[in-house]
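Dear colleague,

Following up on Tuesday's group meeting, I ran the structure prediction for the two-component complex that the binding team flagged. I've pasted the input sequences exactly as they went in, so you can double-check that nothing got truncated or mislabelled along the way. The structure tokens for the whole assembly follow below. Feel free to forward this to whoever is handling the docking comparison.

Inputs:
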Amino acid sequence: MEFISDIVSLLSATLRISTPLVFAAMAGLFAERSGVIDFGLEGKMLAAAFVAATGSYFLGSPWLGLALAIVCCVTLSLLHGFASVTHKGDQVVSCVAINILMIGLTTALAAAWFGQEGLTPTLNDEQRFFEINLPFAEALRPIPFIGTIYSDIISGHYIFVYFAYILVPIVYWVVFKTSFGLRLRAVGENPSAVDTAGISVYGMRYKALMINGILVAFAGAYLSTAINANFFREMSAGRGYLALAALIFGKWHPKTALIACLLFGFTDALQIRLQGVALPIVGVIPVQFIQALPYILTVVLLAGFVGRAIAPRAIGQPYIKEG
Amino acid sequence: MTTLVDKSKVPWWVSNAIVPLVNLILALFVSGLFIFIAGENPIQAVQLIIYGSFGYIEGFAYTLYYATNFIFTGLAFAVAFHCRLFNIGGEGQAYLGGLGVFLIAFYFSFLPLPIVWLLAIAGSVLFGAAWAFIPAYLQAYRGSHVVITTIMFNFIASALMVYLLVDVIRDTNQMGPQTASIAKDLWFPMFKDITQLFGIKTRYSPLNISFFLAILASFFVWFLIWRTKWGYEMRAVGHNTRAAVYAGISPNRNIIIAMLVSGALAGMLGVNEILGVHHRVIVNFPAGYGFTGIAVALMGRNHPIGIFLGAFLFGILYQGGSEVTFDMPNISRYMFVAVQGVIILFSGALENLFRPQIESFFVKRLNKERTT
């Protein structure tokens, strides 16, 4: 029976760990589908984590913290747009700037405001989110299989987790079934055609970036006000890049990106479980190697051993209006 | 809409000196705002920075020591950038480069002196380049974006080095995870040793003869990029890949060459840190210098002279910055990481913010002078 409980906790952890990746990947999807590269997910996630924790600490409510994080991330996305859409600056450079700026600023401001380099005070129960048990979780538990799945894997997560997995079909619907989505994809593939149709290319890209900011804020707030009770230095730990890799591996499609996010989440959950465990044949794998697994997996997936990814055609190119 | 200026009429010093300078001033102004937000006086901070980096001889030596590291990592980013590649893996490449230096200096210490040094430098070049090779190969032949793969290789390098330092090459007589020290006669001569030759006594500073190696590397990069067929091909691929293909240049080959050279230059940071300063490998000795190289290169417009100036400026910021963190409790050293971000933003991504205005201003003035 221990085997089953291992699997149950592994799957439950996978859902929990994948959540910020799902938010960030969906955020990246909007930006990149509109033709704007977003390596800045990492920096924005970090900023959101810091702002959410700080806001919640001062204002006493994690929801207000989340709201501030959204404002912060939308501002950063607009900055990215200002540099790379309006001023046609290099999109990758703009992202790198945002990432480095946020590593520095979050840590420095935590030091200035709370006296500890890159650490915000621990949030109390009112200042953070809590796991919620779904209705009938206790009542259904005795039912074999379905009960276990429902009560032990699906129930008992933070609200963010449910929101993330509901978000994916919504994103699918918006991007592939609405006229907004059609325009969004068109702007990323062939901006001049969209311009000819009388739709503002810049306007579409800015709208996409605003949605991007809102969604990535959830990822950051989840890190600092839900699974952890404070912000710490560089707590995003490369998740922004992992999410982007998941997006690329998922060929800029919400469904496949979700699967890639879950794969990363599963690897990470497995890596936590495997630490210090002696495996058959190989014995105990050095902990550093296990910790590097998600990063190695990213490189392997990006190497495209499962088919080459084709990006939106106009990605990374500033749009220069004729005339 | 701003009026477009005929590029050929803009004097070189406007686009290559005035515009970058205006961007830098803007960046420093925004950085001043951050210091203000953190609750300290920005003007006082500037005074401390200038005192810390120029006020006394050891302070100035520290400034040049930091500049040495930034020249290496700045050149590394610039070479890749000329081929339109974003090598943000300088951190990991430098880490591995340091391992290469150590392994040779430690296991080949029986060889005569200048030969060990040359081999150790070769070791840094080889290890740094090797760590850049896989991302380079994947970018060239599989289209995996080099930004993500190099960042991942930073994480992997960090895990690998901790593993090696804890389990493989650790000196068990030491408390922390670090290697044993290399033989003392292999240590690079320090600044204080050199001033002593001239009868001037100075206190310790980490500046060492690696500084000259950095200058040599700058000449090498200038020669490679602007005076060789290789450099020409790299720039051609970076400028317009399709045109390069029609000219018979292989983008894949050049992507790999550019990344190998870039990794090698980043790896040479290990020479300064291992032969010059620590004399052993310690956990996380690259300490963010790899990332600073990005800001240095973008500020210096990817030219060795600009990179030298950028590296010097960051040397001032780092050394003066430690003076600031010492005197101002509210300012952490990470504030200067934020400053890097701001400089990358204004010198890189927003470089065209005021360019049209500045260029047309000067062109109009020059025209007026000519007609009167």
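Strands of chain A lie at 278-279, 283-284.

Cheers,
M.
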